[in-house]
Amino acid sequence: MAINIKELYEVLAVMPASQNLMLVGKHGIGKSEILTRYFQQRRIQVNTLFLGQMSDPGDLIGLPRLDEATGKTVFMPPYWFPTDGQPIVLFLDELNRARPEVLQTVMDLALNRKLAGHSLPQGSRLIAAVNDGEEYQLTDLDPALVSRFNIFHFRPSVQEWLKWASEQKMDSRVIDFIRNFPKFLEEDGVVDNPNRGLDKTPDRRAWKKVSDCISNIENLREIHKKMIAGIVGPIATQMFFKSLAANKILSGKDVLLEYPKCKATLKKYKLHEIALVNDDIFRFLDVGGYSPEQKTTMATNLKSYVSDLQKNDKNEELAHFASFFEKNTYPIAVTFILSETFEVYDMLLNFIKNM
Q: Which of 45, 58, 90, 202 has the most CB atoms within 10 Å of its CB?
């Protein structure tokens, strides 16, 4: 059973630092960045080590030297080792790409929080990440090492990626494409067998690269198509350009800032299209990409939008909108509704009570 980012953060909040954690997931899902963001907000330093790049244990434990006072060999602390006594998060990335001799060094670290006689500061955490799948060249992990970790299969949701992409101000064409065709976010949605050598398939990191490449290009040409294919593969690229040529689904920003112009189009939408709009409204409010002067307009338009959803006899559209409010999926958006549009809050509360 996989956990997403929100669930991972909930696990980290209750799991003692003395317990080791292992995240199992595909490449390109941002494991290191997600963990770093969480702990930086709590003023805890994250030191990331890419074990797959280490040629021998000395890269991990440091180099030996002679202690002239005792005549014994001791190891100098490695460059990453904390010297101020403050707890850290040691993130061991690519654990199952490491050489067997490096993995033997990790054994003592995982059990005793020690490396060559040096102890990590009290309260430090040990988190490892591994890739899982036949498409990877991996090292088998010793069961004794695996037993020293709590193991979680990690898969951030598409909604979480879309929110992150909006916060990063990624190109709207990429965000809209994944919003409308979420299966193209990762390779699993593109090919049945991702083990295809040098054939490119999409992942979350790759779409960020696409955004960086096209953000200042208004009209994409054939050369840009070839460039994007080299980043996310030909199948995803073909669908991406096909979507650009088609009419796109209205965004949450469109609805909140210009609802009167959107009403006619929204009336033609089917339930799955309204669901995309609902999600994007909450995401837009949660990210906060608007000015204080726009709040009044947004509150008025949101009230009109929800009122029109309420007029639908089948209620599925309003039920979908209310589900985001009830589950508090986007807490900042819920705060906006509570503080800026009490009428909407009242409508949703009554609707939920009568469901």
A: 202
CA distance 353 to 339: 21
pLDDT tens profile 213-247? 999 999 999 999 999 999 999 999 999 999 887 76
The terminus-to-terminus CA distance of the chain in angstroms comes to: 30
In angstroms, the CA 86 to CA 83 distance is 8
Contact 324, 335 (CB under 8 A): no
The DSSP bridge pattern shows strands 45-50 and 88-93 to be parallel
Task: For residues 170 and 165, give the distance between their C-alpha atoms in angstroms, rounded to a whole number.
Answer: 5
Contacts of 193 (CB under 8 A, 6+ apart): none
9 exposure class (CB count in 10 Å sphere: 0-12, 13-18, 19+): middle
Q: Would you mind telling me the total number of residues written for the chain in this entry? A: 355
Q: Which amino acid does the sequence have at 140?
A: D
Let me know: does 87 contact 17? Beta carbons within 8 Å: yes
Structure token pair of residue 179: 């919003």
Range of 81-90, 129-138, 227-236, 266-275 with top mean pLDDT: 227-236
Distance CA 109, CA 115 (A): 6
How far CA 212 is from CA of 172, 207, 271, 312, in Å, comes to: 11, 9, 33, 41
pLDDT digits (tens, 9 = 90+) for 300-350: 999 999 999 988 766 899 999 999 998 888 999 999 999 999 899 999 998
Name the pLDDT band for 192 (thresholds 50, 70, 90): very low
Residues 6 or more apart in contact with residue 122 via CB below 8 angstroms: 87
Q: Is 50 helix (H, G, I), strand (E, B) or coil?
A: strand
- Kind plus residue range of the DSSP H or E element containing 278: helix 271-287
Tens of pLDDT, residue by residue over 15-44, are 999 999 999 987 778 888 899 999 999 999
